[in-house]
Amino acid sequence: MSNKIDDTFLSYACNWFGETKWGLSGANIIRFCQKYSVMYGVKLVYEATDMYTTGGKNKATVFALNLKEFQGKHQFEMLIELCKMPEFSIHPQTLEIQSRLIERYSEFAPDPSDLLDISIITETKHLLDDYPQVKKHYESALIKYQTQIFERNLVDDMRFSFEQLLKEILSNDRPLEKQQDDLCKYLQANGISDSLISMYNKLREYYCNYQNIHAKHNDMTKKQEFEFIIELTSIMMKLLLKTTIISP
Fold it and tell me: What's the confidence (pLDDT) of residue 220?
């Protein structure tokens, strides 16, 4: 596995952020690279803010050549910062770059366990190994939390991962709101007490209500709420996954 983001993707992103007419200026591109050069001790290919020293290369090419000198995790960090800049953040092409960055290069994303309950997150990720599509959306939400992008989608990803896990374990195609009967039967069959089943289902109901309210009103959720939703989803999924492991 490479320790860097693919050169073609870097060039594609730099062509956008260094677009000739309205992208970052050549001087600002060099200053941006210099900041990370100092942070991580990386020697840049082009360090002078005077673009006449580049031998005729355009600013997007200079940007890409500098970016290629960094390690993958630093490249990821730099691209995320670019995506969050006000002049780029709401543009559809920026959103497309963000989506592809997270989808293809999640191994370079910061570890969300640094900010969340590490034991819950680590164990849940391990238990999801047998459910790759569920794990993909779960990890996508964690990356979005850590990088502070696509915050509305973070909540959607958490819901989707929980909903898909229930569908796979219960062998049905019902939405999260309509899983009560099959869920109760499954938990009862696997020795979970009635009181805990009642608590679990009540949490599921509140969880659905919260998700639906925020989805309908497109609310911006506070950071504390993101953390709660991630950890609550993890706890509810973990119970199901552990029950599945020990079930006859």
Answer: 55
